[in-house]
Structures are given as structure tokens and as C-alpha cells.
Amino acid sequence: MTKTNRKVQYLAGLCVSLAFTFTGAVNTWASPAIPKFKNGDANIVISDAQTSWAVSVSALGSLPGCYFGRELSERVGRRKTIILAAVPGFVGALTILFTKSPLLMCFARILMGIANGITAVVTMIYLTEIADKEIRGALGMLVQVMNNLGSLVIYGIGPFVPYTVLNSIVLFISAFFALLCIWVPESPYYHLARGNVAAAKKSFLFLKGSNDSKWADEQMDIMRVHVQESMENRSTLRELISNMKYRRAIYIIAGLKVLQYMTGSLAIQSYLEVIFRQSSSISGPYASIVYGFVQLGAGIGATFLAGYFGRRILMLLSSLGVAMSLTLVGVYFFLQDSVVVSKEVLSSISSLPLIGVLGFNILYAAGLGNLPYIMQAELFPMNVKTIASSMATMLACVLAFSVTKSYQGIKDVFGHYTVFWSFAAVAGFGVFFIYFFVPETKGKTLEEVQDNMQEAAVEIERLNKTGEGD
């Protein structure tokens, strides 16, 4: 058996995943920024309604970003697309740094959302295509770690620096990851899809840390067969939706996206400091820092867990834990806002929101936070992978916008506890969904995953025809 060195795969995965530090920074920017709006430190006149738009509109910007990511990854390659994603992110961060207009701020947040949309579509495709099957899950989990790292930087520094410094940090991150990605190799699968076998082989050998040309040719033949089959059956959006053989994958990924975003992760991240100011005995800024460190540690831990446990078990435990944690937070706010218990009782349970939110943080990172990204890159064949990933990310953007935009309104009308119990109910549904519908993909090559999905699709179609005959 040919000996390989995975150092390049790890380094390339690390550099590409750094794009998500910008995503994490954009998603959590509002947590330290909102208090600066309210106390005048930002020197900006902005209403609560305008603030909610500024917080949530980046998710809408991700919608065109998904389209751009899909088109660019097919036309110029995975690597160049990841680098190009930094351009709208940099322009948006630069605009926020200097603007005093809420309208321009929303426009800048849309640009930053476009960058995030491009990143979300292409990064996981790249990672799953360059990684050996033994490390694909762990390498894919780096995305969550880097997302958490970006969040930690904002949580840890943002509350204690001026508004301009906060925005300068986001601006720096947008350029930093692009510079680090200049050296990374292109995906061999992309080269094969373009018919450039020599470039694919060169990239393959570099990624594998090997110079065994004969072995590389054998692997190229296997990959080329699957790529050729996929490209010959290249599908449109209409084909993706209407063809039965993709139906199971669509249902699975749509369900996982609902779990990933409708459990409220982005809303909690965006309003974290405000949540702790209203509930915890610990100050909002310091509680946010604790949250950021726990989130980063949980993401790193999840990276190792993904290498030992299957996707299903991690997502099952994650969904169950998220439901229980958010229920605890809802109980506190129910006692505070609806039952209106005494200050003594509230004081005795003041740590409940912190425990619940940190529990959510850890358990979300262990599964729901990132494994759906890996699954969407694994379950779809190459001929529909970019369009499927793009559509999945667009669905995620709609869900993220809905959650972050409605958070303030639901809280004001129905109470904080209603928000958290709604998130918990979605997570509870997720336990049953994952158990009955989500397959295991750990330890399988992309080719093996596709073969299994196709066999399942054929079996479902056969059962449907049998039922029609009866």
C-alpha cells in the first residue's frame, strides 16, 4: 500500500477553513455593537427596528452569494472562488468602518453576507474533495472551529474597544484568510471535471504527499469514472428537484438545515450580550467571553469526536442536548417574565441561563453546528453537488434571516421564554428526524456514499412502482 503524508491536506484545510473566521465575526458583530449603539459609543443614531435589520440582513446577502459561489466554483475553480469571496467582505467591512448611516450599514452587511454565502457553498465542497475518507469528517469540522474562533475574537475584544477598532478587526480578518489561501492546491475533482488529467494528478500527488505516479494513475482512473458519469448526467435545478434519485438527499439536507438554523444559533450569537444583560448575574461582556471560549473549545473537541464517532450519533446527541439546554433557558425567562417570581428566587437560579446557553453552545458545536455542511457535500453526486450545495445554503440563509429578524419581535410580543422554547421544540423534532432518516457516511469514500444513496433511491422507486401496480 502506498504511503501518504496528509500534512498538505491538513494545512490546506486549515487555511481554507479560516474563511469562516470572517463568517463568525460577521455573525457575532452585533453582540458588542448593539450596546455601543445604545450608549452612544458608536456615534450613530439608529433605532431598534433599524438595528434588527442590520443584524439580520447579512443573511439575505448570502442568497446571491450562494449563486455566485455556485457559478464561480464551476467556472474558475474552488480555490479561486474562496479567495474571491474576500472581495465583497472587505468592501462591506470597509464601508461599516466609515459610515454613520443605518442604510449604508445595511448595504455593507449585505455585501458581507454575499462573502459568507460564497464561502459556505464552496468551502465544504473543497474540503470533502481533497480529504482522505479517514480525516474528511475531522477536517470538515475545522469550519466550525474557525467560525467559533472568529466569534471569540469579537466576543473577547469587541466589548472593550472603540467601535472603530471593532470594525477594523472584521476588516483585517476579511483580507487575512484570502492571503493565506493563495498557496492551496485546486481540487483534483475540479481539474478532472474540466478534462485536465495532468493537473488533477499533480494536485492529487501534492495533496497526498506522495510521488508514486503509478498509484496516482490508478486512483485517477477510479475518480475519473465517477466524475465522467456525474458530468454526463449533469443536472439543472429542475432536474435536481424532480428526479427521484436525488429526492432522499434533498429531504435529508433540508431537514438538517432546519435543525441547524431554526434552533436559534445565529439569533443567540447576535443578541448574546443583550441576553446575558437581562438574565445572568455575570456581566454581559464577560459572559460573552466565557461563551466564546467554550464555543471554541467545543468546536475543537467536536473535530476529534468526528474522527471517532459517526455522523448520526453525534447529531442525535447534539439535537437532544440542544433541546434540553434551551428548555432550561426558557424556564428562567418564564419565571422572570410570566410568573414574576421574587428577586430572591431569581437570584437563586441566576446561573440557569448561563448554564443553559453554555450547554447549548457545547452540544450544538458537537453535531448540528457543522455536520450538516459535511453531509450536504457528501450526499450529492458531483453533477449536482454545486447546485445542491448552493440551494441548501440559500435555504439556510432564508432560515437564518427569519430567525434573526423575528427574534426581537417575538420576544417583545410573546416573551423571551417563547423564543427559547420554540428553538427547543425544533431540536426535539430533530432527534426523531435524525434517527429515522439520516444515514451514516463516516468511513466511506465519496464514491461509496454515492453508490449507497443511488441504491436507496432505486429501492424507493421500485417500492413506489410496486405500490402503483397494486
Question: How would you describe the overall organization of this protein?
Answer:
The mean pLDDT is 83. Helix 17 runs parallel beside helix 20 (352-366). It is built from 24 helices and no strands. It is globular and about 75 Å long. It has 470 residues and is mainly alpha-helical. It has helices at residues 7-17, 19-28, 30-39, 48-75, 78-84, 86-98, 102-130, 136-157, 163-180, 188-193, 197-208, 213-232, 237-242, 244-262, 265-270, 272-279, 284-308, 311-339, 343-348, 352-366, 371-379, 382-414, 416-437, 446-469. The longest helix is centred in the C-terminal third of the chain and has 33 residues, at 382-414.
Mean pLDDT across all residues, rounded? 83
Helical proportion, percent range: over 70%
Global outline:
globular
Number of strands: 0
GO molecular function, one term: transmembrane transporter activity
GO cellular component, one term: plasma membrane
Membrane topology: Multi-pass membrane protein
Keywords: Cell membrane, Glycoprotein, Membrane, Sugar transport, Transmembrane, Transmembrane helix, Transport
